[in-house]
Structures are given as C-alpha cells and as structure tokens.
Records
---
Amino acid sequence: MNGNRETILVVDDVPDNIDVLVGILREDYRVIFATNGPDALATAQRQKPDLILLDVMMPGMSGFEVCTRLKHDIRTRDIPVIFITALSEFRDEEKGLGLGAVDYLHKPSHPAVVMQRVRVHLQLHNQNRALEDKVRERTRDLEQSRIEIVRRLGRAA
C-alpha cells in the first residue's frame, strides 16, 4: 500500500476501460493497471494489491485463467478479485465466482456501483485479516499456556 491508500490493480486490454476505472477509483485508492494476463500476474506478485478488478475477455490469457493462477499461488491467493466484464451470461458469472472471485460486475457498470462493491469487498477483506490475526494471536497464547501447564505438571511429578 502507498501510505494509507489501498491499492487496486485494474486489468483490461482496452485502454478506455482502464481509463474509466482509474477515473472512478483514483481519488480514494492508489490504482495500478495491467493490459494482459501475464503482466497482471507479475504485477500482483510484485506489488501485492489489496483488490483486483479483472476483465475476462483478453487475448492470450483470459481473466478466468488469470484468476485461476492467482488463487493457486500462495503469494496472491488471498487478494480479492472482482470480475468486471461484458460477459453477462449466467454460466460466465457462475464460472468466475466458482474460480474464487468475490464478485462479478457487468460492463458498463455505473461508477457508484463499482465504488460501493470495491469498498465493501475491501472492508470484508480487512475484517477477515484482522480476525485471522486475532486467531493467530489467541492460538499462540493458548500454546504458551499449554507449554506452561506441561512444565508445571512435569515439575510436580
């Protein structure tokens, strides 16, 4: 992240689509972009965005393939992915969500809807991270308590 601003990776092969999304998001977020699947994967691994907006129909590597690879890579699997695409068939949406995307928006999307979906998914992602941190901390505390109990029992025997 850049300061307190969360980073959004926009992935689309059409520059006008990137410009629209950057225009919607740039006041509230740091926005980076990629124009193809391989660049998206490299950027996600290198810059660890907080959320990815991903087109489906791209030459060479589809957004579905990008999402699959992101979700199978330990470095990127926890990054929320929102598909934003012209594909509006139920099967496409089902496939995208089945691959691990947290949402699926149809183009053209209203700017207010894009902003709200991004906000909601970032809030949920941040809440999940905070809960995971608390669980890890509590697990460490319990393990320390268990070790101390075992030591005391060992001394008493």
---
Amino acid sequence: MADLTTLTLAAARDGIKAKTFSATELTQAHLKAVEQTRALNAFITETPELALKQAAASDAKLAKGEAGALEGLPLGIKDLFCTEGVRTTAASKILSNFVPQYESTITAKLLKAGAVTVGKTNLDEFAMGSSNMTSHFGAVENPWRRAGDNRPLVPGGSSGGSAAAVAARSCLGATGTDTGGSIRQPAAFCGIVGIKPTYGRCSRWGVVAFASSLDQAGPFARTVQDCAILLREMSGFDPKDSTSANIPVPDFEAALTGDIRGLKIGIPKEYRMEGMSAEIDALWQKGIAMLKDAGAEAVEVSLPHTKYALPCYYILAPAEASSNLARYDGVRFGLRAPGSSIEELYENTRAEGFGKEVRRRILIGTYVLSAGYYDAYYRKAQRVRALIAQDFETAFQKVDAILTPTAPSAAFAMGEKSDDPIAMYLNDVFTVTTNLAGLPGISVPAGLSAEGLPLGLQLIGKTFDEAGLLKIAGVLEKQVAFTATPDLGGRA
C-alpha cells in the first residue's frame, strides 16, 4: 500500500469510503509520522490512544454506512482549543496542567463529523507571536530548510505547530486561529494552504482568547479543496458565542468550479511598500498574470489607511489581551505561585506563569487602556480601524477579491529577529488589515524563493464570501501547480 500520509484530505476521504484502506490504517500511518517528526516539536500533547479509539469507532460507523463528512481523517488541533479530558495549555506555563471539562464548539463539530485527533499542536504562547518561538514548551521547527543551510527556520506564528505538522505530513489538516495573520503567515512559511474566515463564521466558544474582536478560527491543509472541506464542518452559528453569525453555511467544496472568467481582482497600490524585496514583488506580479490568464481582470484599488494598520493592531490587540488574560490570577484555575497576600499571589503567579512576550503585550495593553492614555491611543485606534474597514468596503464596490503577498519574506532562521520585537511585528504587515476589517483571507503557496523556501500569495474576500474566495484560490493554486515538499532528511 502506498504511503497514506502523502494523500490529500480529499483523497483520504474518498479512499476510506471506497474501502481502499481503513480509518485505523490511515490513523496508524499518521501516528507513525507524528513519532518520526518529533524533532520538529510540532505537538505539545500527542494523543495516540485516543486517536486509535476514534479510528476504531469510525471503522464501525463506516461498516454501518453512517460515515460523517470527515470520518476517520486524522487532524491536529491547535492547543488553544479546549478539548474535554485532554490537556489544553495555550503553550503557557500558567495553563500547563489545565484539563478542560468541556469541548470547544469547533472541535465538537469536527468530532461529530468523524475526525480523528492525533494531538494538540504547539503555538506561540497565548497565540502571541509570528515565529512560534514564544511557547513555554519550546520552539517549533519549520520542516523546510534553506538550500545549503541547515539552520532551523521558524514555521511562522502563532499557529506554527499546526502548519509544521501539516507540511510534515503528520496529519491531513489542522485547526488554527488567526488574530493578525496567525493562520496565513505560517501557511506561507510552510508551503501549505490556510484560510481565515470572516469574523463570526466559526465559533470562538471554548477557544482560549487573545483578542476577542480579532480572533477567528480556521483550517490548515495541503490544498484549497481540503481547506474547503474542513471549513464547511467548522462553520456555523453557535448560540454560546455572542459574536457568531447566524447565516447559512455554503458547500465550500462545491464552489470550486474553476471558472473565474469576468471576475475583478483588486491590486492595492499601498501594499507595494518601501523596501519590499524584489522576490516578493515578482511573485505578486506572477500571481496577477496567472489570474489574468484564467480570465480575471486586474484592477488597481486604493486602501489608503493601510499604513496605519500595524500600529492600530498593536494597540487594540494588546489592550484586549490585557483584559482577557486578567482571569489568570492563580485563584480559579491554572498555576498558583505562593504569596503572603492576595496581591502577592497575583503578582507571583503572573510573573512566573507568563512568558516575556505575553508580559510585554499585557503591559502595552494596560498602558493604552489607562485613564491618561485611553483617548490618545485606544479610542484613536478604534477610529482608525473603522477607516480601514471603510477602505475595503469602497474597494469591494469595484472588485470581487484582492490579491497581495502573504508575508514580506520567506521563513527566517530561529533567533534572526527575536531581539527586535518591531521587526518581528512587521511580519504581519500584509495580514492584519483583514482581521481589523473582519474579512476572510487565504494564503496559497505560489512559488519558491531563491533559497528554495516556499512563498505565499494572499487573497482577501468580501464579508462571508468564503465560497467566492476559495473559488479564486483554487484557480490560483491550479495555475501555480506548486508541488514542492520539504526534505526532512535526518530530522525525521
């Protein structure tokens, strides 16, 4: 039998239904891959016993003709999603022993559809980072290497463990969360597909919060079709989430018609930023040409407030983080450090439990929310956010989607930017706008850098038009015909 880990999720689904192999055989192959790629540190908690139990249940359902849409398909779950009876850490010391008594809405939906959980994937602590180097459980390595250079590279963040696991063939797909690019940037760095849906499309209930008005869950997979399959099962209204949108969920897979003739693709002039590498610009021009060849029309659009997006994001996101993370005080759950008074208990617990980047963002957030600075920073950032959303509304009156680079560079080596938080934050320059505006965005692998590393192109869609976005992404994917895979070599 061929290596089952080389299959796409769609091919694995079809193979199981055709009884070419069983759910148990498919799961065993991926559990072996998880073991063989342990050096990447993509998983915080592996769940082989649970996975085999779930696979056996899937085989029983398949025998009865009761298969769900994801029956027997092995997935990785970002360790930000609460999973009943399985440790959920948010990659933080403060939650290192937290075992939820409930299941997040999204993982419950995936389980109901028959998915198999091979483990909880690593991430930047509380999803704060663009490199996956802030995890309490150690950094994740990108499966890719630069040509002739064996230095470990970052997989991107915060969902780097999920992206690395999918790229390394340890699972067919994985969940991620995206607050400022945390699905799309790792997807680009690891040479896979990742989609952030419209804010409200997927429930946030049971997902450990970073910035509640920006966080949105979405899937990683190796193809656009696979992402479409996963997104359909992850989406839907949830009365337990007050921000969940009560709108129908389309058949995203059926939307992949391959026909984009007559569609207009916006090219924002503000994304041609000073200092942009020639390599990234050339990739962007190639993407434009490919969509034109497929029958689409390229239209220049203006998003004039783009230059304010990063400072706006890095005021609003830390402010919300400061509020959300106030619950970790050593009293109700998680780590408790000793203290002779309640104030000392709080201080010691939070100082010991939070890492450097989380502490930095809490301090920034608390500062911008303080009485003397609320109007000068937080309120002004909210106004800028409204203007950024307005820019997109105006642009989408002329175009059906917008094409941009996903990230300003290919994956960088571990430690290359860690001493400069501003340089690290600049990794989100092309992605934060969609979170601020609540729009869907997808990253598709579009080529290799001169050093042999994957580069991604991003498509941004209209509110709740994931179907249209996936259709265009599917055409771009077909035109690019990206088939490169990482050489795990001695690290496997």
